[in-house]
Amino acid sequence: MKIVPKSLFTASVLIAVMMITGISCRQKHAPLNTGDSATALVKHPEWSKNLSIYEINVRQFTPEGTFAALEAHLPRLKDLGTDILWIMPVHPIGQLNRKGTLGSYYSVMDYKAVNPEYGTDQDFKHFVKKAHELGLYVIIDWVANHSAWDNKLVKEHPDWYAKDSTGKMLSPFDWTDVVKFNYEVPEMRAYMLDALKYWVVNFDIDGYRCDVAGEVPDDFWNKARVELDSIKPVFMLAEGEKPGHHTAFDMTYSWEFHHVMNKIHKGEFTANDIGKYLKKNDSAYAFDAYRMNFITNHDENSWNGTEFERLGEGVEAFYVLTVSVPGMPLIYTGQESAMNKRLEFFEKDPVEWGDYKMTGFYKTLLSLKKNNPALFNGSFGGTWARVNTGSDDKIFAILREKDNNRVFSVINLSAAPVTADLMGEVFAGDYTELFTGSKSTLKAGDKIELPAWGYKVFYK
């Protein structure tokens, strides 16, 4: 769920150097622990270093809405290049105070059961096993902040829940179908930790995406990470972007980056705001902290509009950007088929898959992400530098570099054609263009003509 209103040089010398080189920012190969970031203390599983992530909405993915039906799509998802599968909540959904016909995925009635609408325990175990056989990793959504009103814990342990001054149990925010836990109760914490371990031990899942992670105390997550890692190396994604989350989580949401992209398309921001965001990100997060980059997800799709509603003809350009900057790119259910409808949140509303017409585009980018170390995640990946183009309010040109590997993306983030006048020498060299396969030697003074929302991605 998304919370809805979610000194070696003087300054003059430094500016001169930046103007001469054409570099507007460059991330160094070192952890940055300024601000609130006592971060990146977790050890990322080695397998996560170059992967991308796919969010699966089981209810809407197929007409059947089952794990068995979903299993048939696993080879296609593997071929797409999304090796981490984030499964939206698999638990039974509460009936009491339910919203709509089928209820919210995030209203958990039983933390140790599979939603019978999706199948049986054995069906889910088989799904995870088949995913692993294909080299895929499975993480499931976890709702630790609140439960359904008819979760058995409400009656058996009412003291485990938060209450107002009159003793009435509390719903978080305006989520009237759920009731909030009280993490000051040690027994409640022990139960939740045991439930987290249950799915790793019994279903062999590879980790969790944790809903509204910032509403749960950090020390709970820190303990949970240690105990889960003692079973097997897990991958943890926090729905939140507190730098402090990275003491327990591998990855956090890049919500701010997402909102910057939306504002650029609306004309409220320019390409320069991408550079500002990346500098801010560098100062707040450790170099090894994974950030999840996205143009859509289940919250955005259902409540704020599809990527086509929000980004229009810039959808491809903005996704090229999410792959080019530091972070792990996300694809949400239906995105690879250019789905342009808001999926119902509380009702059955299957994806209309069509011919998967954007699969080739996403597959090409994610293959580059997986195979070029410059784009790997966290400290496995490369540094970044912005290259000036003479039209920096419209064009974002970014160089990623790791050892002898490079990715140089030149992206027009505007609705008008523009010419990039490449400045400096940092990017100079021989490249292959990703989408055409053409070879070229780039140097200072070269000009690249880009149509509205156009892009070029060069690599070596």
Keywords summarizing the entry:
14 helices; seven-stranded antiparallel sheet; disordered N terminus; 19 strands; single chain; 29% helix; 19% strand; 460 residues; alpha/beta; eight-stranded parallel barrel; TIM Barrel
Judging by the overall fold, what is the CATH architecture? Alpha-Beta Barrel
Q: Whole-number average pLDDT?
A: 93
| Helical segment count | 14
What structural class do helix, strand and pairing data support? alpha/beta
As a percent range, the share of helical residues equals: 25-40%
Strand order of the largest sheet: 2-3-4-7-8-9-10-11
Rg measurement, Å: 23 Å
CATH topology name: TIM Barrel
Number of domain units: 1
Please give the alpha-carbon distance between the first and last residues: 40 Å
Shape: globular
Largest sheet, described in full? 8 strands, parallel, barrel
The unreliable regions are 2-40
Tell me what portion of residues adopts beta-strand conformation. 15-25%
Number of strands: 19
CATH class (first level) name? Alpha Beta
